[in-house]
Design brief:
Largest sheet: none
Order of helices and strands: HHHHHHH
Low-confidence stretches: none
Structural class: mainly alpha
Mean pLDDT: 81
Amino acid sequence: MSKLKILLKNLGPGLLFASMAIGTSHLVLSTKAGAQYGWLMAIPILLANIFKYPFFEFGVRYTNVTGKTLIEGYLNRGKGYLWFYGLITLVTTFTILAALYTVTAGLFINLFQIPEVYINYISLALFAFICLLLIIGKYKFMEVSLKFVVTVLFLPFLLQLW
């Protein structure tokens, strides 16, 4: 196996975690808030990221040290914690997915210049397509495409540093 293939294979988990941590709020909402409100939004955006960081950091540390999932950890604390986690997950899942698919559909419509189609239909089609890929077992395709997208997003970052 070539060194490049080994590198890409080893980057997989890190890229998946990074793409999970970087979402619509970072790429769209933070930039829109900055464009609308200028430096006034710098403090709330900075605070949101500072307060979010421990959850990512210590969640991973907990699972590494204990060998248990976070769900098992919540259950060990009591069923109330688990139910609270479930409620938060249920509520945020639908709102986050709706926002993600709407933003993605908007980008899709602009990229392919198809303004005569409702954004809701594109969002639903994207959702159905991704669900279908996952159901028929094409997770590998999703992982590879995610690596490609994260790389494409990372390259402009590197270029702007020079």
